[in-house]
Amino acid sequence: TIVLDREYFINVFRDMLPFVDEQAEHLQQLDSEIGDGDHGINLTIGFREVTKQLDTINEEAADISTVFKKIGMILLGKVGGSSGPLYGSFFMKAGKDVTGKDEVTFDEFCGMLINGIEAIQLRGKAEIGDKTMIDAFLPGVDVLKQDKPEDPIEKFTAFVEAMKEGAESTIPLVAKKGRAMRLGERAVGHKDPGAESAWMMMEVFLKRLKE
Ligand code: ADP
Ligand code: MG
Ligand code: MG
């Protein structure tokens, strides 16, 4: 297995703003089709603030757990949309089992992601098939919980791939949670913006993992 240090996570969080800037228009487009067209902007606002505070967080945080909690709190506080509290809970709870650690094993990292995803479900109460980010995350959790592949890069690649397919699977669905719910059948044929940003965000972790 491999060990991921604080520097890895700080680098990932530093990559998030350029990533959302690059994808903002695409996410805006998806959200304008079945929502209120602000998903890209919401993420930009959140991660702009994360970027602003990242050096201070890195200096002051005692451990990886605190880094994640601080970032979650920024998203929770700064992003108005439903994605802010959901992604905020994700990062806050991802840090809950790694108190005191300045590095984590790959398996511990997988556990962090699973905890974060559970927090999203606890908060948003969405199930698979409701046309939300959960449709991307839960197929990813299945991969994280499997023993194979053993190689971390292979496993994380499979995780992101499963999430990407999960996002695609939202296209034919009617929404049972979130704004798109009001559209009924008219949401059919459109991909859920949160499911799309979810897998893309996890790909930022993958890219740094490969370095
Ligand atoms: P808002 O809908 O408030 O404008 P965003 O546009 O930033 O917020 O985020 C919309 C995304 O949030 C949706 O595409 C969906 O994936 C996700 N979402 C909304 N409600 C829920 C929920 N209850 N559980 C999980 N995800 C949700
Ligand atoms: Mg929106
Ligand atoms: Mg909104």
UniProtKB/TrEMBL annotation:
Q: Which residues form the DhaL domain?
A: 7-207
Q: Name one Pfam family in it.
A: Dak2
What are the UniProt keywords, alphabetically?
Kinase, Transferase
Among its keywords, does the record have Ribonucleoprotein?
no
**SUPFAM superfamilies reported in the protein's UniProt record:** DhaL-like
GO MF, one term, reads: kinase activity
Q: Which Gene3D superfamilies match?
A: 1.25.40.340
- Do you know which InterPro entries this protein is assigned to? DhaK_L_YcgS, DhaL_dom, DhaL_dom_sf, Dihydroxyacetone_Kinase
| PANTHER family reported in the protein's UniProt record | TRIOKINASE/FMN CYCLASE (PTHR28629), TRIOKINASE_FMN CYCLASE (PTHR28629:SF4)
NCBIfam families per record: dha_L_ycgS
| Name this protein carries in UniProt | Dihydroxyacetone kinase subunit DhaL
